[in-house]
Write a structure and sequence with these properties.
Blueprint: H1 6-23, E1 31-34, E2 37-40, E3 55-57, E4 72-74, E5 88-90, E6 105-107, E7 122-124, E8 139-141, E9 156-158, E10 172-174, E11 189-191, E12 206-208, E13 239-240, E14 246-247, H2 263-315
Parallel strand pairs: 2-3, 3-4, 4-5, 5-6, 6-7, 7-8, 8-9, 9-10, 10-11, 11-12
Antiparallel strand pairs: 1-2, 13-14
């Protein structure tokens, strides 16, 4: 589907539609058609026989709708084959081939062009959900977003080329080219410009940011983590490897899990060590107190010794002179 010429397909389909219209004797009508129906453009709402509150503006917009309600087609070929109702197509060939799909919104050239029976899809951008046929509840915002999706459901691609090749289900991509290489994956989340899948069919991966896409690596700030309480009984450590993958089970070079103490066991050990430290600190405090007392005693003894020495000096008899005999 990627290699088809959109213009050639559009011209071929509308040429066939034109021939069919001429053979059926259809005629052009412009203006208020009654019942809340309004048209403007060659063969816009040309086949209407009932229904209400439909608007066709543009060459062959809503050209084959007969009795549906609440369709809006703006642009050449918009909703040309639709007869289900509640669809909105704005742009040349938007929802061009839709027949029984409903509650779809397509804004942009070729948006949801191949959709036939899918419902609750939103496509905004050139070729957004271009190849979708019967996939439902998809959201594509950006040129070529979810371009290759055919039958996948519940995907959201926001950004040019977001989830471009995706054909799986329940994938979410936010950013220019985010997840554009994913093909058949499911339940993946890609956030950031050029954040790519690790493989074309990966399942349930979360990838945020691409360090290889820019000149400098990211710094990461996440609120609501620091100084927040967790359940000690179930808490565990989080590890990160050189690919940026987070996990709670470290592995060795051979991919084998490495046993690590549980947080509860480590907490017990920390408490034991803390108790030892407290006991040591108490012993040190006691020793300091005893040393202070000993120092005080030594000072007192020194003072007493000095006092006694001074008293001895005072009581010492005066020296006598002995006369020498002739």
């Amino acid at each position: 589907m990627k290699n088809r010429s959109n213009l050639a397909i559009f011209v071929t389909i509308l040429s066939a539609v034109t021939c069919f219209g001429l053979l059926s004797g259809a005629r052009a009508a412009d203006g208020d058609l009654g019942g809340g129906n309004t048209n403007e453009g060659y063969r816009a709402l040309n086949s209407l026989s009932g229904g209400g509150f439909n608007t066709g503006l543009g060459w062959y917009s809503l050209g084959f709708l007969t009795d549906a309600f609440y369709d809006t087609g703006v642009g050449a070929g918009a909703l040309v084959l639709d007869n289900e109702g509640t669809n909105t197509a704005v742009g040349t060939a938007a929802l061009l081939l839709n027949t029984t799909g409903f509650a779809n919104n397509a804004v942009g050239v070729d948006a949801l062009l191949y959709n036939d029976s899918g419902f609750f899809n939103n496509a905004h951008g050139r070729n957004a959900l271009f190849n979708n046929v019967d996939g439902s509840q998809n959201n594509a915002l950006g040129d070529l977003a979810l371009n290759d999706n055919v039958s996948g459901n519940f995907n959201t691609g926001i950004g040019d080329d977001a989830l471009f090749a995706c054909t799986g289900n329940s994938n979410t991509a936010l950013g220019d080219e985010a997840g554009s290489n994913l093909e058949g994956g499911e339940g993946n989340i890609y956030i950031g410009a050029q954040v790519q899948a690790g493989g074309t069919g990966e399942l349930e991966f979360i990838r945020i940011g691409d360090d290889t896409a820019f000149a400098f690596p990211y710094d990461t700030f996440v609120a609501g983590i620091f100084d927040r309480a967790v359940d000690v009984g179930t808490a565990t450590f989080v590890y990160v490897d050189d690919t940026g993958k987070l996990g709670t089970s470290p592995v060795d070079a051979h991919g084998n899990k490495v046993a690590v103490p549980t947080p509860q066991a480590m907490l017990n050990e920390l408490l034991k060590e803390h108790k030892k430290v407290e006991e040591q600190q108490a012993s040190i405090s006691q020793l300091k107190s005893e040393m202070h007392a000993m120092v005080a005693q030594l000072k007192e003894q020194a003072a007493q010794i000095q006092k006694v020495s001074a008293q001895v000096e005072v009581n010492k008899p005066a020296p006598q002179v002995v006369a020498s005999k002739p």
